[in-house]
Amino acid sequence: MVNEKKSSKNLKNADFDECVKKGISGEIKLYALEKTLSCSDSVVARRKIIEKKTKTSLEHVSDYNFDVNVASKKNIENMIGATQIPLGVAGVVKINGDYAKGEFYVPMATTEGALLASVNRGMSVITKSGGAVTFVDNRGMTRAPVFRTTGLKESRELVKWTENNFNRIKKVVESTTRFGKLMEIKPWIVGRNVYLRFVFDTKDAMGMNMAVMACEKVIVELIEKEIKAECVALSGNMCVDKKPSALNFIEGRGKSVHAEIVIKKDFVVNTLKTTPKDVVEVNYRKNLLGSAMAGSLGFNAQFANIVAAIFAATGQDIAHVGEASMGVTTAEMHGDDLYVSCYLPNLNVGTVGGGTGLIGQKEALSIMGVTGDAAPGENTLKFAEIISVAVLAGEISLLSALASGHLAKAHAVHGRGKDK
C-alpha cells in the first residue's frame, strides 16, 4: 500500500518538479525539502532525486503503509521510502513468568532462513515440558555524563555534593517526565574526570530520550550552577549505551531477565534428535570454554539472532542488540533430563515511544499482548520475559542441532537450499 497521497496544501506540479530539479543540481539539500514541500511530497521528491543521481530504480521502497508525517518527525530523516523485512511468528510457547503468564506467539522479522524454524523447535519442547520459568529485574536505563574538574579535591567535592543533594536532583529529574523516576546515581573518579551514572526507571518506554533530557536539566539547573565542575559530554560512555561492556554485564542495564526449563530426556531424543549429555557438552565446550578463549562478553550461542529479529519486528532500537548479545547460557544434567537457562543482563526494550508507534510494529507488539492497559511498566517487563523465552528456545535448538550434527542440513533445507 503506497501512502504518498498529496494533501490539499501541496504545491503545484510545476513547483514540485522545480524542487526535484534543484535537488538534483544541489541547489536544495535533501534535508531542506520539507521547508517547501509537504512530508509526503518530500519523500517522493527525495526518492526521484536519488534515482536520478544514482541511476537506480526505487520502485519497491515506495510501498509502505505507515504515516509519513509521524515517521518523518519521530523516526527517520531524509526519508525516501521503506525497506521491508519478512515477518513471521514463532510459537506457541508456554511461559510461567512473573508478568508473562500463558501461551504466546512471538513475532520475528528476519531474512535468515532457518531462524524461525529453529526457535519454533525449541519452543515446542519448552511447551511440552510445562513452560519456561522466568523472572525480570528492572535495572534501569542509564546515562553517564562526564565532568572536568581542577583535580582530585574538586572531583571528590562533586561526588559528595551529588550524594548530599540526591533528593533535589531527583525532584528536577522527575519534573521532566510523567512516569520516569530517578533510582540512583553511581559516581566514578579518574583524576580530573568525574562520571556520574544516572539510573532511571522509565516504565514502559525504553527511556533513552527520557534519560538524556533529565540529565541535561540537572546539569544546567543544578550542577553547573552550584559546582565549578564543567560537563564535557552528556554521555561519557560509562552508560554504557549500544556497546558490549563488562560494566553492563555486571551491573545490568534496562531489564535483566532470566529463563529456565527442564526438558525430559524423551523430548530431547525424539524432538531434538540428540541426548541431554551431548547438549551439555556442546554448551560447555562452545558457549563457555570457546567464548572464554575468544575473550567474549557473551557466553551463548545466538542471543543476538533472536533479539535482533524481535527488535526489528516490534520497533525497538536495533543498535541495542549490541548490549543484548551479552549473556550466559547454562546446560546441566537434571537426573536423566536436561536443564537449560539463559541470563540476559542487558535488555533495553520499550512498548511505547520510538519505533513502537509505527502501525506495523504496534501490531506485532499486540500479538504478545503487551500494548493493552496495565500498570505503568508492566507491559515492558512482560515483553522482556517473552523475549528471554524466545532466546532460550533458540539456544536449546541450536545447541541440539550442533550436538546432533544437523546444523548444516537445517540451513540447507530452510536457507540456501531454497535458492536452487
Structure explained in plain terms:
The chain has helices at residues 13-25, 39-54, 68-74, 115-128, 152-164, 166-174, 208-226, 246-251, 265-270, 276-294, 303-314, 321-324, 359-367, 378-404, 407-414; strands at 87-96, 101-109, 132-143, 146-148, 181-190, 193-201, 230-233, 254-263, 298-299, 327-334, 337-347. With 420 residues, the chain is of the alpha+beta class. It has 3 domains: 13-74, no CATH class; 87-139 and 254-419, 3-hydroxy-3-methylglutaryl-coenzyme A Reductase, Chain A, domain 2, CATH 3.90.770; 145-233, 2-Layer Sandwich (Alpha-Beta Plaits). Strands 1, 2, 3, 4, 5, 6, 7, 8, 9, 10 and 11 form an 11-stranded mixed beta sheet that branches. Strand 5 and strand 6 (193-201) form a beta hairpin. Helix 6 (166-174) crosses helix 7 (208-226) and helix 11 (303-314) crosses helix 14. The chain is globular, with a radius of gyration of 25 Å. The two termini are 31 Å apart. The model is unreliable at 5-11 (pLDDT under 50).
